Amino acid sequence: MTKTHPIPPAKQDRVVIFDTTLRDGEQSPGATMSHEEKLEIAAMLDEMGVDIIEAGFPIASEGDFNAVAEISKRSKNSVICGLSRANFKDIDRCWEAVKHAAKPRIHTFIGTSPLHRAIPNLDMDQMAERIHDTVTHARNLCADVQWSPMDATRTEHDYLCRTVEIAIKAGATTINIPDTVGYTAPRESAALIRMLLERVPGADEIIFATHCHNDLGMATANSLAAVEAGARQIECTINGLGERAGNTALEEVVMALKVRNDIMPYTTGVDTTKIMNISRRVAAVSGFPVQFNKAIVGKNAFAHESGIHQDGMLKNAETFEIMRPEDVGLAATSLVMGKHSGRAALRSKLRDLGVEMADNQLADVFVRFKELADRKKEVYDDDLLALVRVTEDAT
Ligand code: KIV
Ligand code: ZN
Question: What was the ipTM of the complex prediction?
């Protein structure tokens, strides 16, 4: 069987985006989605140019199997991937679900760190043999096989190199390096990928993926550091949904690569204007609201209240914004009217509401507005219109 890659070999500048919202994201306690919701999110991911959708863990339940199978049948552009542990039964079940896809992938994994090796009670040689046998089995079923040494970032380097080499020789086309417990830091994340590329025979023929968890808040930085060191697949979820503190957020890595392309010259296939829509939908169906100050998709990510910021924004949006709201699918920046807002913002806001005022009248409204803003966190459009009426009646 010939090897297939969603992109040409690793040296190129294209970074594959692998979304695992429906697998690792859904593993988040309480984030379970219905069958229909999964199909809807998968269609949105496919439509927005995500290269690979990890649609579920087919052996986990009948529901997961059915969702992965249906997503596979409906997929248009994306590779559809299913997860399986390192045994033939899991892998066969996974293949039964993903085989309907135009571009199927089997993802199989085993924990390689000392702590994880203790769970199935395998010694290093027994585990090496298990990796060889399971990857070979997966590869006999599917041309596109991804292998992950779970807890890679806490695995001894010599053993990690040994197992990665075995998986490549057995036919894995992508090797994913998970930071399962969010333990690594950017410099170390980069050094690990560099070490694997240098030491493992055949490493330059496969794609290295980075799969980071956010326990220390470093998932995005760790993923980007891995890319700079040679990884060409980022595993991530919408809104960073995932177990504990979550996974790398898709919107963060994609926008970081777009906005800072000057220093990170890599591209993705994601249509970023679809980000806000899918973020809201994932928040709604998972029941996990997005924090207000979340990068890229938070309610406040493109909102300004302080007078200095609002004034700067009105003169030149680049003064306080490094990306345009339209680039992530938001109609416009919002100038929130509160006690920190200044006269220029008030004039602009009233203009948007169809109210033109002479300077002396505006000064009166401004005084009333400040009094109200001291009592209320946010002054809404209706409040402003009421202030205008009161001022007009008084003059
Ligand atoms: O975090 C992890 O190690 C995983 C693997 C199953 C890839 O999600
Ligand atoms: Zn994970």
Answer: 0.99
